[in-house]
Design brief:
Number of strands: 12
Strand order of the largest sheet: 7-3-2-9-8-6-1-10
Largest sheet: 8 strands, mixed
Distance between the termini: 42 Å
Mean pLDDT: 87
Number of helices: 3
Strand content: 25-35%
Radius of gyration: 22 Å
Length: 216
């Protein structure tokens, strides 16, 4: 039976050549650094990176009414959704939804599983099927951005637990997070050490030296 290689805290998240090796990240804590929400009313293709299998119904404010049928609500599987844009994009009604930075950033999560192949497809298809089943509701805008046809599926999905409230959620972009063991290792290696930058003779690049240890 194949086993994943052991996690090395000298590294943050890294792409693996074997899918099984992503399992090394199970049980690790990760941290989402500070980030900001898109400006309300401004179109931008904000990244879809956190979702849940159970959709959330978002009531649309009068100032953010969508075009065409002026939908009263939006159905989205984006985790802690933030509705920042309503309008027409390339001739289609569009609602901009992303995870609310004020709610999800500067928070800790625990990886409880890494999904790929059949497990990934099962979660992906189940989530999208719930959204798609509501497509005929004329009072509901169904947010399938990230799931709809033509969207490239990720190689892996991280199944997470929110350490504060116990929510179960899924992440399609691990690179947005800092892996806590990696951060602690970097702190151990470099905290309270003094560095200077100097120019190598004959070159324009800079070389960093640790003054206390004289190590390059």
């Amino acid at each position: 039976m194949l086993k994943p290689k052991s996690y090395d805290s000298l590294n943050n998240f890294q792409t693996q050549s074997r899918l099984i090796d992503y399992k090394q990240y199970i049980r690790l804590k990760i941290y989402l650094p500070p980030c900001t929400n898109p400006k309300i009313g401004t179109y931008t293709d904000a990244e879809f990176f956190l979702f849940t299998k159970i959709p959330t119904k978002i009531q649309v404010s009068d100032t953010m009414k969508l075009m065409k049928n002026e939908y009263e609500n939006i159905l989205s599987c984006v985790y802690k959704p933030f509705h920042y844009y309503s309008g027409n994009v390339n001739g289609n009604t569009y609602a901009g939804i992303t995870s609310d930075a004020k709610v999800v950033s500067e928070k800790y999560f625990t990886i409880i599983d890494i999904l790929y192949d059949k497990e990934l497809n099962d979660v992906w298809n189940q989530t999208d099927s719930i959204l798609w089943s509501n497509r005929d509701n004329k009072q509901l805008y169904v947010d399938r951005n990230g799931f709809k046809g033509g969207t490239q599926r990720p190689t892996i999905i991280l199944k997470l637990i929110n350490d504060i409230n116990g929510d179960t959620l899924y992440c399609v972009n691990p690179r947005k997070f800092i892996f806590v063991p990696f951060f602690l290792k970097q702190k151990q290696l470099y905290d309270k050490k003094i560095f200077i930058a100097r120019t190598r003779e004959g070159e324009g690049s800079e070389e960093v030296m640790n003054i206390k240890t004289n190590e390059k």
